[in-house]
Design a protein that fits this description.
By secondary structure, this protein is mainly alpha-helical. A 3-stranded antiparallel β-sheet has the order 2-1-3, with helices on both faces. Strand 1 and strand 2 form a beta hairpin. The longest helix has 23 residues.
């Protein structure tokens, strides 16, 4: 199976000014593409060649895992964004209230995790097999599926996700990112988890 760069669900400049077209050109068009290219090169002629990204995340290690996870994480990240504002679906809001006390408490806790994650990585809202919501920070190419969790929402805190628009101001990027979250997508992920 040859892995390919998926199409964005919006125009490359649609998230501007919170995420510029230039950031998408580099983050999506170059960084994401590089993970895909590296993965295809690494799996060629191996027992991993015909596996999906999710299968590779669960079964591979080393460079194959890193590139597969980065490809999956990026697709999940970009598919969870929208230029059209949305609100949290009631079923997900009820779960957020049950697990974090309130939407504001959840947002504060998630933001703190994203701002304070050392170096590069990802911060996730994930659901356990018994339906509990958790905020999970993973360094580098980490993915909570390796721990039996189902991701619902993610923010990329690698510097390439924000450096063009925000330089070293990660907190400003996180604040702007909240305005781009597609809660309809997150709600469907929750219902399907």
């Amino acid at each position: 199976m040859k892995h390919v760069l998926p199409q964005l669900p919006y125009a490359a400049d649609a998230l501007s000014p919170r995420m510029s077209g230039e950031t998408l050109e580099f983050h999506y068009g170059k960084h994401f593409q590089t993970y895909i290219d590296n993965l295809n090169r690494l799996v060629a002629g191996t027992g991993f060649e015909d596996m999906t990204l999710e299968e590779l995340i669960l079964k591979a290690d080393g460079g194959i895992y890193n590139n597969a996870a980065q490809a999956w994480n990026h697709e999940f990240f970009f598919n969870g964004l929208s230029p059209v504002p949305s609100s949290v679906p009631s079923v997900l809001e009820d779960a957020i209230n049950a697990n974090f006390g309130s939407p504001d408490s959840f947002r504060d806790e998630f933001t703190q995790a994203a701002v304070s994650l050392f170096a590069s990585g990802w911060v996730w809202l994930a659901v356990t097999p018994d339906g509990e919501l958790r905020i999970v920070s993973t360094p580098n190419a980490g993915n909570p599926m390796r721990d039996g969790l189902r991701p619902l929402l993610v923010v990329d805190v690698w510097e390439h996700a924000y450096y063009i628009d925000y330089r070293n101001r990660r907190a400003d990027f996180i604040s702007a990112w909240w305005d781009l979250v597609d809660w309809n997508v997150v709600g469907k992920r929750f219902q399907n988890a």
